[in-house]
Write a structure and sequence with these properties.
The complex is a heterodimer of chains A (270) and B (425). Chain A contains eight helices and no strands. In chain B, 56% of the residues lie in helices and 12% in strands. Chain B has 17 helices and ten strands. In chain B, the strands form two sheets. A six-stranded parallel β-sheet of chain B has the order 7-6-5-8-9-10. The chains are: A mainly alpha (270), B alpha/beta (425). At the A-B interface, helix 5 and helix 6 of A face helix 7 and helix 12 of B.
Chain lengths: 270, 425
């Protein structure tokens, strides 16, 4: 059920990405500002597209893979824009927007004609999903930042900093942004998962049912806990911690794709 | 409205000669005022920096005499024989003079391509002339446009964006690692020319703590005082090495080398926090194997020179974009200039026709006296209105239509056609 608003949002994100890339390669501040403005407008139209969908299904639109991806993309763009405003660092946009665009474009173009009617699960469940989506977005951003750190670190140590390298954020800032992303994601995932356990208890009568999704989520939390513990330590600070963060994110991807689609009994789309 | 320029710069004259024709700020003001009071120039701006001395002006009368007069003035002001300036002076007029100033303001004519200081100097030179009251419509327009060109080139191109010295390239690298240097500390080893430059750059970028060490404690003391840093006794360098995030080394000779083992020890002591070594020494002061250590960044003079060279090329690649901005403004200025010239010619034409009308009335006074005073006044008014209506259409077309003005580029022909005065008041 893709609406004209959905297509407009995809268009705006795509234009924003083009301008972010231009900003990264040519360092034009006007391109960067225009990219942020388009992203903000895209977020707004995307919000109304989500609202339309939510009104149609009378729930947060996570009842199918496409709705879930769209929501994920929206959260990702929103958290990125927040970070951009806080750190005044626009070069990251060229790395984050492709993920947003991919998620949302897939959601928009592959959207089924009508979303399936959702089972009534209450607001607790909706909060569980929303918090976890926020966590996924924050982890995605951390993944992008840690990859950028690894690239930039390699370029700097190899004395091969090219035109783009000079425009990237400093290693220290990338490290700080990775850390804040993981912290936000970690807290959101703890809250989301706790709400999920409570909702599961209400729906099924028990908190934990050894569903693969529950297991992988606990593993993801453990992975990020290890990252937060090690990232400031003597032997891990810097590139090793960033690598650990990037690898832990692979578990998030595994959870969102393979586990959702093939393994989990209760989680199919988020 | 002719604009002329006479000057010399780093390309045409050696420093000894540039020094001799340099104008201090006060000299520039008084020279401009003299050029005007002597009737050589109607408008004048003097731009004098360590790399150039240039006189921009609008002459009282058109022609090559004005250039010779300014040149003679330049020689007499500095007590120079004109032979001394042979081959060093450039003389430009109109389009070429305007283009030259635009290139200067944009940093294209600077010794260090794209440097920013010159734009401020152009602004100051203009400001001084403005305060002295020696500018007029042409130079006001020209200098305001030149400042605009300079600003646009800085904002819209990367002509001034990349570091052009080894020390500033090193600082840029430090910022790529640490971001702002305001929460970081640095140690500068060596108080020679390179060490001094690096220490100054660190201070300018707001480094939180700056320490200086040198084998000769006097020089270290002096440098520390100059950059508001602390002097570290040479014997204690090993002890304090664990604290700074940036170490700049520029020691001469090969007696002192920082080894991989020493740095490994330092890194363990500072919990592997990133450490940036800038080795400006020749021969190198730091073992190249140090770069293999985790979280250590090491750049030597050659690495930094490669960056500076890349930056120079990057700046050169920006020249066409800067030139496009200049071309755009040259066209604007030419359009304004033709418009201003057209307006001036039309005014002259109007006054000439009025004069002729008055002469006509005087010649035919007898005929006119046959009428009563009221009718005479009416006839005079009608003649004025006729003149205005004859001039109205061509005037407004000439001022509004760019194409027409382009066709009338050679406004002097127009003057000749109507027998207008060549020298304007």
């Amino acid at each position: 059920m893709t609406t004209p608003l959905g297509y407009v949002s995809v268009g705006l994100y795509a234009l924003s990405l083009v301008l972010y890339v231009l900003h990264l390669y040519q360092g034009k501040p006007t391109a960067g500002r225009a990219a942020s403005a388009l992203l903000a407008i895209g977020l707004l139209t995307h919000y109304f597209a989500l609202l339309e969908r939510a009104r149609a299904v009378h729930a947060v639109p996570y009842q199918d893979l496409y709705g879930s991806m769209s929501l994920f993309g929206w959260f990702l763009a929103l958290t990125y824009l927040g970070l951009e405003l806080r750190h005044r660092q626009r070069t990251v946009g060229a790395f984050v927007l492709p993920v947003v665009l991919l998620l949302y474009a897939l959601a928009t173009f592959l959207s089924p004609a009508a979303p399936p009617p959702p089972p009534a699960r209450g607001s607790l469940f909706a909060f569980h999903v929303t918090a976890n989506m926020l966590a996924y977005s924050a982890f995605t951003l951390s993944f992008v930042f840690s990859c950028m750190y690894l690239i930039q670190n390699r370029l700097l140590r190899g004395r091969r900093l090219g035109a783009v390298g000079w425009r990237m954020p400093s290693l220290e800032l990338l490290e700080r942004m990775t850390r804040s992303g993981v912290r936000v994601g970690f807290v959101a995932l703890v809250i989301g998962t706790t709400l999920g356990f409570v909702a599961a208890d209400r729906l099924r009568g028990h908190y934990f049912s050894f569903d693969p999704k529950e297991i992988i989520t606990v593993l993801i939390l453990a992975g990020y806990a290890v990252y937060l513990w090690l990232e400031g330590s003597t032997s891990w600070r810097g590139a090793r911690a960033s690598l650990l963060c990037a690898l832990t994110y692979l578990a998030v991807v595994f959870s969102y794709t393979v586990v959702n689609l093939f393994l989990s009994q209760y989680h199919h789309f988020f | 409205m002719d604009i002329l320029l006479i000057g010399l710069n780093h390309r045409t004259a050696p420093v000894e000669l540039r020094e001799r024709v340099h104008f201090s700020a006060d000299q520039a003001r008084s020279a401009a005022a003299t050029l005007r009071s002597q009737g050589v120039l109607r408008e004048a701006v003097l731009l004098s920096t360590c790399n150039r001395s240039e006189i921009y002006g609008v002459p009282q009368s058109a022609g090559a005499e004005a250039l010779t007069a300014v040149e003679n003035f330049l020689c007499s002001f500095h007590g120079l024989d004109s032979v001394a300036l042979d081959g060093s002076l450039y003389r430009k007029q109109d389009h070429a003079a305007v283009e030259h100033l635009y290139r200067v303001a944009g940093g294209l004519d600077s010794m260090l391509l794209g440097e920013a200081e010159i734009l401020g100097q152009v602004r100051q030179a203009y400001q001084a002339a403005l305060e002295e009251g020696v500018t007029g419509p042409a130079l006001n327009r020209l200098f305001q446009a030149a400042i605009e060109v300079g600003k646009r080139i800085r904002a819209e191109t990367d002509l001034g964006a990349h570091s052009m010295s080894v020390a500033s390239a090193a600082m840029k690298l430090a910022e790529q690692i640490f971001g702002s240097l305001k929460k970081h500390s640095a140690l500068v080893l060596g108080a020679g020319a390179m060490g001094t430059k690096a220490a100054e750059q660190l201070r300018n970028r707001g480094i939180a703590r700056l320490r200086v060490a040198n084998r000769s404690s006097d020089r270290a003391e002096e440098l520390a005082r100059r950059v508001a840093g602390e002097r570290v006794p040479w014997e204690q360098v090993g002890d304090v090495l664990r604290e700074p995030d940036i170490v700049v080394s520029s020691l001469a000779g090969s007696e002192w080398t920082l080894t991989r083992a020493q740095v490994a020890e330092t890194m363990a002591a500072r919990n592997n926090r990133p450490l940036f070594f800038i080795d400006l020494g020749v021969p190198r002061n730091i073992e190249s194997a140090v770069a293999e250590l985790y979280n250590v960044f090491l750049y030597n003079v050659d690495d930094l020179t490669v960056i500076v060279e890349q930056n120079r090329k990057a700046r050169e690649n920006e020249i066409p974009r800067a030139e496009a901005i200049i071309a755009e403004h040259l066209e604007k200025f030419a359009a304004w200039q033709t418009g201003a010239q057209a307006a001036a010619v039309l005014n002259e034409l109007r006054s000439t026709l009025r004069l002729q009308r008055e002469m006509f009335a005087r010649d035919h006074a007898e005929d006119l006296n046959r009428f009563g005073p009221e009718d005479r006044e009416r006839i005079q008014r009608l003649m004025d209105e006729l003149l205005e209506s004859v001039l109205h259409d061509p005037s407004s077309r000439m001022l509004k239509e760019k194409e027409l003005r382009d066709k009338l580029r050679d406004i002097e022909l127009f003057r000749e056609l109507f027998g207008l005065r060549k020298d304007r008041p």
